[in-house]
Amino acid sequence: MLRVLAVLILCTTIVSQAFAQGGADPRRVTLDRLAKPISVDLEDARLEDVVQFLGTVGTIDFEPMWEDDTGREGLDKDALVSIRASNLPILSILERILDKAAVGFSGNAWQLTREGVVQIGPKGWLNEYSTLKVYDIQDLLFQVNNYTTVPELDLDAAVQQSQGGGGGGGGQSIFQDDEEDTGPQLTPEQEAEQLIDLIVETIEPSEWEDNGGDGGSIRYWRGSLLVRAPDYIHRQLGGYDFWPSAVPSMATERALSWRERTGNTLVLTNKPARVPAAQTPPPAPTPAPAPNQP
What is the SS3 assignment for 226? Predict the structure, then answer.
């Protein structure tokens, strides 16, 4: 009887979780699981075993890009990894492990598929899973006029007009110079080219086709950027609108640094809002001692 009751409770829990996540983006579900804090103390552990351990602990579906007999660059299953971490999100531990297991010039990365699977491996392999996205940048191309000359106020003309009395318009202007000089302005195409140069120089520079890589291409068209790239590059450009604030990421920190240095709002950072610390009220004043009564 107790066994039947336990099975019923387990089935009810699974069904409840399925209904709760039924309408959720599977990528968001995966990121929530990657946010789970764990503690590890691994010494010379096989990379394959470490990946399986993280997948089991976090209930995460990993798709590792292992090296094969063809000689293609990939993750080495037998690579030894040592890591010690206390109460860190699985994602932070995963990124550290990928850095330790990096082979070759491009390094390793992770990205999400539409089904919420976490692909891990060399960037050159992940580049094969590219998608096209359109980024509206019209707000970044807006230019504010810069007036380099300021008209001077002619006080004599102002006094004469005030003494001459009222009546009728058409009086002489009290400003000696009404000429406006906005200075040279760039065309939207030139502004977009500057933005493209900034992106390919700061976000995965070696992976863009313009720099000799095979990871991404970027073009400007009528107020938008057309970017064909894998998910790990799109993540640094536009972020995830479903990114949990509790998950720190090296890629996100790099995107934050890029935005802070350039002021470019194209990168949608998901930095959690900083909640101001509660202010401690000042201590109540100590009441003066009552005078001695006669």
Answer: strand
